[in-house]
């Protein structure tokens, strides 16, 4: 739980600094968030958390909300830190309904980039737990627009911050945990990244102007991967004790995503597209965890 809290604070601060890259005086009317368990603030628990959902049970939420909220943390997550910084209320889960004039969170635990048809096409329809993929989250967003901005959505969205992702992690998890080879999974990366970019383009056409897009994390450092795919061959690990091939998958995704975002920025020069380098920051936390007890950190960011 402490590790989750530190990671949430770290990632939240990365996105925060990214959003402030062009000046500390930046203000937003709203924040609209899309993503998976890193960002979900309760969408999966609207109407009550499923009994099998451990994050809907104690001790989750104990350090801030004093109760489980559906967040995969014992405290706040990325968008909570962002909202607090910009003087906005914590983002309501979009599925809960309500007033969305100051933002909404479409993120939901288990979200993938690709929809069910994709996983069916690669023979994983009976394996994937696909809950609110990117296209579905965009549909949720479109439905709430009338209550958020009425007939003046272009102006409102141009003055809002969009946080889109990370996306991709659960797509690769589904394939790897189902026994697909690393070569197979690397082959899915271009399709996953292209789908992210298409989703971003849809948001930009709706009026989004400031968009933060995180990359995926170094999954080769995750305890679950180290446990499931650990070997006795020292050559399978990098200098940080992480699985090389799995981190190379993450790095491949991030490299292609950065190139694609640069192309998208050229297509929409008036839009500010910001890449948040989650990968590098988590590696730094692994290498020097003693340095990350407070949000007094330096961050590597790339603007296009």
Keywords:
globular, 304 residues, 10 helices, single chain, alpha/beta, Rossmann fold, six-stranded mixed sheet, 9% strand
Query: From the coordinates shown, what is the CATH architecture?
Result: 3-Layer(aba) Sandwich
Give the termini separation: 35 Å
Mean pLDDT: 88
Query: Strand arrangement, largest sheet?
Result: 2-1-3-4-5-6
* CATH fold field value: Rossmann fold
Number of domains: 1
- Count every helix, treating DSSP H or I runs of 4 or more residues as helices: 10
Tell me the name of the CATH class: Alpha Beta
How big a fraction of the residues is strand? 5-15%
Please estimate the helix content: 40-55%
Number of strands: 6
* Cα-based radius of gyration, to the nearest Å: 18 Å
> Any idea what the shape is?
globular
GO molecular function: hydrolase activity, acting on ester bonds
Signal peptide: 1-25
InterPro entries: GDSL, SGNH_hydro_sf, SGNH_plant_lipase-like
Pfam family, one: Lipase_GDSL
């Amino acid at each position: 739980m402490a590790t989750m809290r530190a990671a949430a604070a770290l990632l939240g601060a990365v996105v925060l600094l990214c959003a402030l890259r062009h000046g500390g005086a930046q203000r937003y009317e709203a924040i609209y968030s899309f993503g998976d368990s890193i960002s979900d603030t309760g969408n999966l628990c609207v109407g009550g958390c499923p009994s099998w959902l451990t994050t809907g049970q104690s001790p989750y939420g104990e350090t801030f909300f004093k109760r489980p909220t559906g967040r995969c943390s014992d405290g706040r997550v990325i968008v909570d830190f962002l909202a607090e910084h910009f003087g906005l209320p914590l983002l309501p889960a979009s599925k809960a309904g309500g007033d969305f004039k100051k933002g909404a969170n479409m993120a939901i635990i288990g979200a993938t980039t690709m929809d069910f048809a994709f996983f069916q096409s690669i023979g994983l329809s009976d394996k994937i737990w696909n809950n609110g993929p990117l296209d579905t989250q965009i549909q949720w967003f479109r439905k709430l627009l009338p209550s958020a901005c009425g007939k003046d959505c272009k102006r409102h969205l141009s003055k809002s911050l969009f946080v889109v992702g990370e996306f991709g992690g659960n797509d690769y998890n589904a394939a790897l945990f189902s026994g697909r080879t690393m070569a197979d999974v690397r082959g899915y990366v271009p399709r996953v990244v292209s789908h992210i970019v298409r989703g971003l383009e849809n948001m930009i056409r709706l009026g989004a102007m400031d968009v933060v897009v995180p990359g995926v994390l170094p999954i080769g450092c995750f305890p679950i991967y180290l446990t499931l795919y650990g070997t006795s061959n020292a050559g399978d690990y990098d200098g940080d004790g992480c699985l090389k091939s799995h981190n190379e998958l993450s790095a491949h995704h991030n490299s292609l995503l950065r190139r694609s975002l640069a192309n998208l920025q050229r297509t929409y020069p008036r839009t500010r597209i910001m890449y948040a380098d989650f990968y590098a920051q988590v590696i730094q936390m692994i290498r020097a965890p003693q340095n990350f007890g407070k949000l007094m950190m330096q961050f590597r960011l790339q603007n296009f």
